[in-house]
Structures are given as structure tokens and as C-alpha cells.
Amino acid sequence: MLSLVLKLALAELTISLLLSRGIYAIEVPLDLRQPPTIIKQSVKNHIVDPRDSAVVECEAKGNPTPTFSWRRNGRLFQLGRDPRVTMRRRSGTLDIAFYSGLAPEDYEGEYQCFATNIFGTAVSNKILLRVFKSPVWRRDILEPVVINQGLPLILPCNPPPFFPEPHIFWMNNIMMPILEDRRVSLGLNGDLYFSHVLVSDSWTSYSCNARFAQTIQQKNPYTLKVLTSECPPATLPVPPTARNVAEKVPSFLSPPGTVSSKVVLRGEQLVLKCIASGYPTPVIRWSKMDGDLPTRKVKLEDFGKTLRIMSMSDENSGEYVCTATNRMGFVSHTVVVHVQAPPSWVNKPTNLVLTAEKNGRLLCRANGVPKATIQWMVNGEPIDSRLPNPRRQVVGDTLTLNSIQMGDSAVYQCNASNDHGYLLANAFIKVAPRMVGLRNQVVKVIESNRTILYCPFFGSPLPELRWVKDGLTVGVDGGPYRSYPNGTLEIRRARINDQGSYSCVASNFLGRAENHVHLEVKEPTRMIRPPEHLRAIRGSMARFECKVKHDFSLPVTVSWLKNGRHLSLGWRLRREDDSLTIPNVHREDEGNYSCVVRTELDRVSASARLIILDQPDPPTDLELSDPTERTVRLTWVPGYDNRSPIKEFLVQYEEDYWEPGWWKNLSSYPGNLNSVILPLKPFINYRFRVFAVNAIGRSLPSRPSQRYQTSGAAPDAIPTNIRGVGTWKTRMDIRWDALQDTERNGPRLRYLVWWRRRDSREEWKNATTYWLRYTIYDADTFTPYEIKLQAVNDFGLGPESNIVIGYSGEDRPIAAPTDVHVSQTDSTMATVHWTPVPYKTIMGNVKEYKAYYWRESSQLKWLGVSREKKSKGFDSTNSHPMGVLTGLIPYSNYKMYMVVANNRYEGPPSSIIEFQTTEGVPARPRYFRVQQRHMDTLYLDWDRPAEPNGILTGYTLKYQVVNGTRGARTQLDFPPNTTYYSMHRPDRYTRYRFSLAARTQLGIGEFTMEDSPLFTTEAFTREQVDIATQGWFIGLMCAIALLVVILLIVCFIKKSRGGKYPVRDKKDLPLDSLEPKDQDGSFDYSEEDNKPLRSSQISLDGMVKMQDSDDSLVDYDGGDGQFNEDGSFIGQYAGKKDRDDNEGNLSSEATSPMNAIYSLA
User: Fold this and answer.
1) How far is Cα 1137 from Cα 327, in angstroms, rounded to an integer?
2) 473 burial level (CB within 10 Å; 0-12, 13-18, 19+)
3) Which end of the chain has fewer CB atoms within 10 angstroms, the N or the C?
């Protein structure tokens, strides 16, 4: 009995001052009877693989142990009726087995778990169970897309719906991805956009591909047919650029229109993409209407078309503008971005353990955009559906219970929801006659601070309590300790030696109970470098320091306040361990900044003020007064200087006639003035505006004043840049620059022009014109004139200009240079000398002496040349001028003559002279070939240079091995009449590099280089059998075939006439003049057929080498019997028979087969 009383005392000892308060939140130990609490559940969107069993989790604790039930799609789920669904023991977790041909989709739906015991029911989230299944893409047959070149095009993708959204990409007909560029774009919806199509876009097909969770599916490809106004020939490649395409102003393909909106959740990324059509391809730029783009979070992708902002916050909402621009114009689209958020807990309801007759309150507060809606439930049922309870009140997010009773234990659910999701929280209210407090707690306190040690107790009869430290009772005799009847021990001023373990002992006649409290005394937190007041220029960086010293065992938290409110750092502000940095400060950043340092025990803070220095506000209330002919007084009210004194005011003016809307500087005035007299010009309708300038910069302009019109006057200004320019030999144009529009001083501005010949006593001539040029038609050729000018308007004459000298026009020179000769010639240069013409014969200013020269011939008689005429000018004014002709061709005969030129004409030519260039080194050979005629023989041939530049003395050939071990370079010299060379190589796989150059007496010319071909068996075989593709061989075979056919026809005719008959019966000539024949008179060609080919001989390298010969088909009578590659055998044979027939009977030509062959040839 005594032990039972002791256990009860220990259990009741923790009843404390909390009971006197009546309400508290607590984590109730599981050994106390309590309602259920959900401790584990599946995610809200639960996707399962149909190949495996589905598991829907639901775990809960409680005392007594709770039982579980499920609702599916809002209805009670009868687990016993479906053998495929089982619930785990002592758990609410469901196992759903997909087998026996059952469709897994039948189990999709919304599941909710209920955990119940005698004190109430806890509810899980609504779990949406979905089975993963591969989407099916319709295999539509797509017709070819026909479109005109230059028009925009959208190829839709339209993938089947799937969660999560698939990754879209496009591929061409060779399975290569379609890459984005400024013209081709992939939309956020997966469509493929062309700002304008080109002919090259039709060279491939386009297929949309979607990568789902486990599969990749492809849509049937699109085929494009691009129509153009000009169709190039099919054999010519079509360039990928657009031709004959009209340039177009940009317009948006995506998103359409000028304004759209987008909602993005807080913390998620914002992706905006603008795709525009137009030609040339528009350039996309992004901006933000109400501020700058968040540079630290923004990324521009896809050639600037995609704007991506990571981790959106409320300050990132606003209007984002994308502008598409090309040289035809621009177009803008505004995207209004709203940052919203799903519900998040501010005050999540917590479990309450209350004593009877006390009041309890559950708070359920959640943030969200739009604002979260709060719904209360009791034991899983809406609170409105329960019987009314007069002691229970629900006001928005607060549920209150008054005078709690034993039967009021229940589990309350709070559902906070908006358009983007919901939060569900369970909290139980437990009514208990006793409570268990914390044991062996640790209390921390800052040195020199007051602290209280609690020791809740309860017993019947009421126990006696005392505190013990280090074996000594404390709090009974005063001093730093004070003990209260409810078990509390107060330490008025904690010291380091006060820390340690304290024991509270409660005892009555039934027993004794003990609890321990450990006290730790910590070093106070001190600020050693507080923030200081700052003055910062707008756009610069401000930095506050906040360095503290604290107890190393206490975690510290630093936060910043602005004007007493928590400072949201956002993307721009940077907080470090001991500082706050504000980059690019602006006026809204001005205020008091406080650094607050917190530990779990204390808090220190310090404040400083940030003052923003900015450019002044613009002046206001501009007023004009005291008008005169050339002045007016301007008065204004200065704007706020934004903490930086105004140094000066800048006055600008605008006139509405010549350049309306264009503001120009008038004058500046000290910053202590706000009323000045402005100097004005006549005949201008003024209005003014004022800028204020301080050390930071210039303000925005003030609002314009009213207009003020000045009266007219004669011009004050003199035209500038006066000049006389000769345009013809008897003409001179007098030209000048116009007065500025503000210098006219009156209407109908014109110019009075004066002129006369220089150094003459003639009177000044004058004329008036409205133009900026006046032409004198009766001037002498290239004569100097004195010129002056003055401006005139309706109010009078302006001042005269200074006298300037101008010249009339130039005429054609009448003399040619003399004594033209050439000296110091070499292979490419020649020095030219001449005697200048008299100055008066030039009829103008000397521009240059020009030499015309051409290559008349080469000193090599056989070489033809181009006689293209060239020229070169020389600027020479001394008495013995000279010039150098460069770029001449060596070993050539040149002719030249010279002329003198003024700024308009060239004079007559001088006499033609001749000169020669010396010999030089030759140019490269016309061609150089290396061929493989045999397996072990290389054949080299070349041609002489196009420009020998002298008498060729030979050729130099160098070669060396280029694969394997490199050997020494070999050099061979050849005479000038040798243009080929055969060499034997020991190894057919050895490759050589040959260099060939021609030589003259002056040296070796430029080398040309060739490598020997690679050896292959196929190449050699092809070389050996290549005769079958030669034209002469094909002609020979055709001739033989035709001969056989004709012989067969002749035989057939002879047979049809009764057999053989002698040919001599048909001839008039004697038989002995005929060719050898058979006894029956027929021809025998065996001797002719067996004759050797006399025209061929075997070369040293084993190849058949043909001798040079004329074409044997040119002359059949004089054929020399050679057998040539071009089919001359036919001519030889036919010519011989023709001669024999002419010597015999000429009457047989009509029936002779040889004559037929001859005629055919």
C-alpha cells in the first residue's frame, strides 16, 4: 500500500503552476490515455507503378491503441469485400495487390484514413492515388504544310496529358535535334515556331517527341513545302537565306496579343517566353514596368526570348514587358505576373491537456495567396454537422471551449485551403484530473539576471516542499534565494557560482518524491561594433556592421529591422554574419535600421539611420515676367535638394517653328538663384524649363513655362564657310553654310552675294538669293575672285562677311609633258622622268602627272601577252620630277606615254616611248601531275610556266619520302625541252613528295608541290582495264560490228542470186591489179588483219607509249597506216581499199562493202 502511494505521489508531483493557469500545450507521454495522433501518411499525390503492389500509408499513435478505417472518394471503403486490399496489423497502411487481370485503374481515387479510439478520431490528408500509365499519342496522318517563304509558321505538338508534364523536343528526319536560334523557337507548350520560314526549312521533316516518366513517344512528322516567288533550277543549291521576301514589322506568335497574365507560386520559378514573327528576325528584350529586373535571380535564355526567375517572391510580381524589334519597327507584350502561394502555417493547432472547468483555445492560422479558408472538423466530421455545444465557439481561425468537461475530449481538425492546395492538422483536447510535469529539466540564465526554478507538485494531503543545493537547503533564510509555497525558487541575481544542480523534495506522511533542476549561468551577449549612421548616394552600396560577442554555448540569431519592422531581404539585400549590405540604394531604402541579436536567453540591438543622397527634385511653378525685346525674367520654386545642396540651375528652351519639341541649353545659373533674366534672340516663340543640379546629378526637368514670342530684327550673324568653286571653265559656284534657324531674326531670310575679279578695279557685282549657292556664268577660266556675303530678312541687312578668294572653273590642259624617258629598269620596276609643262598651259591647279603604260609584247617571240593598259599618277612639283612604275612583268617590251591632269581634265598625251624589263625568275609551271602507270612506276609530267620571265634554262625536281622513315631530299635537273619523268620505286606503298620549279639565268622560280598517289589494288586494276572506256576502242568495236553486219548482208544477197561469183566479173580493170583473193573471187583479209601495229612501241617502263601523230580521220587518201587511239585504223583500212579500187574497176563502188564502210566512216 505504501509503494502504491509513493508511485501516485511521483506521478502527481509534476502537477504545477500550469494547473493553476488551466491551459497549456504539451507533448503527452504515450503512457497517459489520450486521443489518436497521425504520425505517418502517404503524400497527397501518390503515383504507383501498376507492376507492383500499391502501398497507402497511415500510422497513428494513441492510448488506447486506435483502430483504422478508410474512405474512398468520400464513401466508406469496405476492405473485407475486396480480397486484393489488406490492412497491416496494428496499422492503417493499405496493401493493394494488382493481379488476376484486374485493371489497376479501378483503384484510382481519393483515399482518407481515420484513426479512432474512445477519446476521438484523427484524420489523414486526402491521398490521391493514381496509377502510372503510358499515354497514347494519336497517330494522325499529317498533310504537308504549304507556306510562302517569309511567313511565320507554328507546328503544333499537342502531346497527350500526363502528370508530371512531359519534356518536349523536336527532331529532323535524320534523328538530330532541331536546335533553337533567333528564328526557330520551341514554345513553352511544346509547339515549334518559325519567325519566318526559309526555303532551307523544307529540306527536312519535323517530328515532335515527348519524354514521359518511363517512355519516349514520337508524333508523325510534318513535311514543309515552302513556296517562293523565284524558283531556282533544281540542279542549283538553294541558299538558306530569304530572297525577295518583304520585310515585316514584328508581331507576337506567343503569347498572342499585347497583354497576358500569369500566376506563379511563391518559391517556384517563373518562366516567360516571347516568340515574335517578322523579317528580319526580331530581337527580344525584357524589362519590368515598375522597376529593374532582379538581376541576381533572372536568367535570359534562348537568345533572350526566355526570361527565367528562380524562387519567386512577392516583390517579383508586376508587369514584365518583352519587346520585339527589327529595323521595320517594334512591338511589345506585357505579362502581368501575380505571385501567389499555397497555405502555410502561421499558428498550427497543437494538442491541449486541460483541467476540468478551465477554458481552452485552438488557433489555426495560415498564410496564403489568395487568403486561406479555415474549416473546422471534430473527429473527422464537419463541426457544423455536430450537435450544437453552447460551450464551444468557432470564430474564424479560433476555436474556444469554455468550462471544459470530462466528456469534451476529442480530436479537432483544421483545414486551411485556397486555390493552390490545403493543409490539414489534427489537435486533440484532453481533459485530465492530474498531469505529469517535466523531470530533470535544465534551466539557463544570463549572468546577473533574475531566474525562477519551477517544481510543480501535487499530493493529498498537501506535501511540504524544500530546495536543496550541494546538500544545503536554500531559500529559507533569505539571501539571494527566495522560495514560494507553490514550489517556485527565485534567484534574484544569478552569478557564476550559482550554477549547478538543485533538488526539490516534496514529502508528506505517505511518502517522499524528488525532482532535479540543473541551472546554467551564461555570459551576456554584448555588441562590440554596432551599426553607424550612413549617407549614401542613390545607386551606390550601403553597408551596416553588427558585430557581437556572446557565450560560445548559446546559438545566436541575427535579424534586421527597418523602421521597427522585420526587414525582408529579398534578392537585393545581402545579410552576412556581421553586416548588412544594401546594393544600388534608392530613396525607399532610407530609414532607421536595427540589428537585433538574439540567443535563447537574451537579446541586444542597435540602430543607425541611412540617409540617401539623390539628385534634386525638379523645380516647380515657372513664371515669366519683365519682358523686353531681347530679354525676359524667369522665376521658379526650387525642388527638394534630397540632402545634397543645389549647385546650379540649367535653363533650356524650345521653339515651336523650326525644331518643335527639341530642347536646347540656354544658360546656367548659381544654385542660390531662383529668378534670372534670360538673353533671347529675335523672332522666336520661346518656352522654358529648368533643371536643378547638385553633387549627385541633374534633376528631372520642370514642367515647361508658358510661351513668349520675341519681336523680329535684322540678322546678327554672318554666313560661314564661304567659298568659290569652279564647276565649268566659265562658271563659278559661290557656296556657304546656312544660318541657324534661331539666327534668322525675322521672316524671308535671303543672302546678298558680292563678287569681283581679284586685283582689278572693277565694281562689285551682287545678287540676292534664297538658296545656299549662287552661280556666275560669265567668269574667265580659272580666275581668282573676291567674294563676300551678308544675310538679309524683312527687317534689314545683316553685317558683311570677310572677303574670301574663290576660283572659276578649270579647262583642259593644252600641253603635254616632254622629254619622257625611262631609266634604271629592272625585272619589275622602271624609273620615269619627264619635263613639266608650263603652269599657264595647265588651265587649273596641277593635280598629278599620270603615266599610261602597257605590255606590248614579251621578248620571247612565241609568248602571247595581254595589252591591258594601266596607269599611275605622280604628285611631283619640282623642276626635275620622276616616278617609279612597279609590278612590271620581267623580260617584256613596254610602251608608255604621260599626261598632265588638273582637278577636272587630263591634257594631251606625250609621245609614246618604249622600254624593256630585264630577265627574272620564272613563275610556277602551268600544271604538275604525278600518276601511277604501273604498280612500281610513277610517271611525272608538267608544262612550262605561263610566264617564263626569261629564257628557260631547265627544270629542277626535288623529292623525298613522306611516310615511314624520311630520307634525304633528292634533286634532279632537266633541260628546258623535257616535260616528263618516269621513276621506279622499290616499294609500291612508299609515298613521295615532289617539288618542281623552272629556272632561268637569274635563278629558280616558285616551286609547285605534289604527292604521289596511294597504291590500291583496285586502282591498279582500274588502270589496266580502263581501255574499255576509251572512245577510240568503242568506235573500233562499233566499226567491226557494222562491217560484220554488212558482210552478212552481202553474202545473203549473193546467195539469193545463185551462189558465188567473181568480183572481177564486175570490174573493168585487169585481175592482176586487184588485191589477193580466193580462187572464187572473194576477198581475203587475213594478211591485212594479221599485220602488226607499226605505230606502237614498248617504253622503258613497260607501258604502251603512243607516238605523236595527227588524227587519222583528217585525210583518208594520205593515211600513213598508223594505228592511233582515236580510231585511225578505220581510216587506214578504208583509204587503202579506196586506192586499190581507184586503180581497178571504179564501177564497183556501188556494191562494194568496203566502199560502204568508207562512206559510213
Assistant:
1) 82
2) middle
3) N
The H or E element containing residue 1022 is helix 1017-1024
Q: State which residues form the domain around 45.
A: 34-131
Are 369 and 425 in the same domain? yes
What is the rounded CA–CA span in Å between residue 109 and residue 74? 10
Residue 151 near residue 184, CB atoms below 8 Å: no
Q: How many domains is the chain partitioned into structurally?
A: 10
Q: Please classify residue 1088 by burial: count the beta carbons closer than 10 Å to its beta carbon, then call 0-12 exposed, 13-18 middle and 19+ buried.
A: middle
| pLDDT tier, 230 (very low <50, low <70, confident <90, very high otherwise) | low
- CA nearest to 1143, candidates 1117, 1114, 1113: 1117
Report CA 407 to chain centroid distance, whole Å.
70
Does 639 lie in the same domain as 592? no
Q: Which of 950, 944, 914, 952 is nearest to 927 (CA)?
A: 944
How far, in Å, CA of 474 to CA of 824, rounded? 127
Asked if 37 and 61 touch (Cβ cutoff 8 Å), the reply is yes
CATH label of the domain that carries residue 284: 2.60.40.10
Grid cell of 220 as nine digits: 508523325
Phi/psi region, residue 539 (left: phi>0; alpha: psi -120 to 50; beta: rest), is left
Q: Report the pLDDT value the prediction gives residue 511, as an integer from 0 to 100.
A: 65
The DSSP bridge partners found for residue 111 are: 72, 127
Lowest mean pLDDT among 351-360, 416-425, 536-545: 351-360
Residue 1058: Cβ-neighbour burial (10 angstroms; 0-12, 13-18, 19+): exposed
**How many other CB atoms are there within 10 angstroms of residue 933's CB atom?**
17
Query: Within this chain, do residues 453 and 511 fall inside the same structural domain, yes or no?
Result: yes
* Beta-strand relationship, 248-254 and 579-582: unpaired
In this predicted structure, the answer to whether residue 1089 has a pLDDT above a threshold of 50 is no
DSSP-assigned letter for residue 826? -
pTM across the whole model: 0.39
SS3 497: helix
The answer to whether the CB of 632 falls within 8 A of the CB of 678 is yes
The three-state secondary structure class of 779 is: coil
Rounded Cα distance, 500 and 521, in Å: 9
Strand order in the sheet with 574-575: 542-545, 579-582, 574-575
Burial of 624 (0-12, 13-18, 19+ CB in 10 A): middle
471-475-479-482 Cα dihedral, nearest 10 degrees = 150
Contact 690, 622 (CB under 8 A): yes
3-state secondary structure of 1056: helix
What are the backbone angles phi and psi of residue 498, rounded to the nearest 5°? -85, -15
- What the block records as the C-alpha cell of 418 is 485556397
Give a yes or no: residue 499 inside a domain.
yes
Same domain, 827 and 794: no
**Lowest mean pLDDT across 789-793, 894-898, 981-985:** 981-985
Residue 1043 has pLDDT above 90, yes or no: yes
CA atoms within a 13 Å half-sphere pointing along the CA-CB vector of 911: 9
Mean pLDDT of 761-785: 89
Q: Is residue 7 part of a domain?
A: no
Q: What is the Cα–Cα distance from 291 to 817, expressed in whole angstroms? A: 76
What grid cell was written down for 38?
497521425
Residues of the chain with pLDDT > 90: what percent?
A: 40
Residues 106 and 88: their CA atoms lie apart, in Å, by 21
Give the up-direction half-sphere exposure of residue 1126: CA atoms within 13 A in the CB hemisphere: 9
Q: What is the pLDDT of residues 1116-1126, one digit of tens each?
A: 333 344 334 33
Alpha-carbon span 273 to 280, nearest angstrom:
19
| CB within 8 Å of 680: residues ≥ 6 apart | 630, 631, 632, 686, 708, 710
